[in-house]
Design goal:
InterPro entries: Beta-lactam/transpept-like, Beta-lactam_cat, Beta-lactam_class-A. It comes from Orlajensenia leifsoniae. Keywords: Hydrolase. GO terms for molecular function: beta-lactamase activity. By secondary structure, the protein is an alpha+beta fold. The protein has a single domain, classed as 3-Layer(aba) Sandwich (Beta-lactamase), CATH 3.40.710. Helices cover 37% and strands 18% of the residues. The chain contains nine helices and ten strands. It has a five-stranded antiparallel sheet with strand order 2-1-10-9-8, sandwiched between helices. The protein has a three-stranded antiparallel sheet with strand order 3-7-6. A hairpin with a 2-residue loop joins β8 and β9. The N and C termini lie far apart (40 Å).
């Protein structure tokens, strides 16, 4: 699979490596609050990576080590959704195709299918569960169906070099398993979501399918906690605010990428934190730092 030269060149402009600004340094005044919060976290030992760009112009609004590869937990599931959405164009692989869950697919934590009685669901419904609740069981069934290698090939075809879905979801990771579910660089993640929002990932139809599934996301606990939206109902504009996002959470990992539209403008953002999750205070400090970035983003678009 290849991507057109023009698309490849445009992707390179948006994701090219650049030195991250020093936290707390020469930041745009619009984002001084977020820089201060991220700076305090970095001083305390948290590894931070972040980037925000204006959706219309592509201008980088702020960046902190945005080329650094970070663990991103469930954010890599977006790459799975892209592959599933692309395959739905094949009549032999349509949204009504029923998939059974198998014993090997079962895993705990996020998602609701593990708590439901239905032993099988249509492909489109499984993708919606992944978008809405980051459903781990639905994720594993979809990975088993399309193949992890196909997801990796699609990722490479998009030109993503520092972002990947590495493995199935597992309750425990052994020495022979990938150490993380997924990894990503903020520069590439913001490009991916900006391109989805513009209908440029694979095709307009495929991009719209993925955006539709992600618009169901009920996790507004990180950056998006600043936006004042109803976690269970925010597919339409609320006080002029419209959000599509994906979060990732694991031991010592909190990450979020999204597109935020407001009455004035729109931004694409990605924030990843890697920290020693040894006590509640450390975790709450990370969550508060992500919320501070969210407040700056809200102020910019509103």
């Amino acid at each position: 699979m290849t991507i057109p030269a023009m698309e490849s060149e445009r992707r390179a402009r948006h994701t090219s490596q650049r030195a991250g600004r020093h936290i707390g340094g020469d930041a745009d005044d619009n984002f001084s609050r977020g820089f201060s919060a991220l700076g305090s976290l970095a001083v305390s030992g948290v590894q931070v990576s972040a980037r925000a760009t204006d959706l219309a112009s592509g201008r980088v609004l702020f960046s902190v080590d945005d080329h650094v590869v970070m663990p991103t937990a469930s954010i890599g599931k977006v790459l799975l959704l892209v592959e599933v959405a692309a395959r739905l164009s094949d009549p032999a692989f349509n949204g009504y195709t029923i998939l059974d869950r198998e014993t090997a697919d079962f895993v705990g934590d996020s998602g609701i299918w593990q708590h439901l009685q239905a032993p099988a669901l249509p492909i489109a419904d499984l993708a919606a569960l992944v978008g809405a609740t980051s459903d781990n069981l639905a994720t594993n069934v979809l990975i088993r169906t399309v193949g992890l290698e196909s997801v990796r090939a699609r990722t490479e075809a998009l030109g993503l070099k520092r972002t990947a879905l590495l493995d199935l979801v597992r309750d425990h990771r052994g020495p022979d398993d990938a150490p993380q579910l997924s990894i990503g660089a903020a520069s590439e993640l913001t490009w991916l979501f900006a391109s989805l929002a513009r209908g440029e990932i694979v095709s307009k139809e495929v991009s719209q399918r993925v955006i539709g599934w992600l618009s169901l996301n009920a996790d507004l606990s990180l950056v998006a906690s600043a936006f004042g939206l109803d976690p269970l109902a925010h597919r339409g504009a609320d006080h002029g605010i419209l959000l599509v996002n994906k979060t990732g959470a694991d031991g010592g990992v909190r990450a979020e990428v999204g597109v935020l539209r407001g009455p004035r403008t729109a931004v694409t953002y990605a924030v990843s934190m890697y920290f020693a999750d040894t006590n509640l205070q450390a975790r709450l400090a990370v969550l508060d730092g992500m919320r501070q970035v969210g407040l700056d983003l809200l102020e910019y678009v509103h």
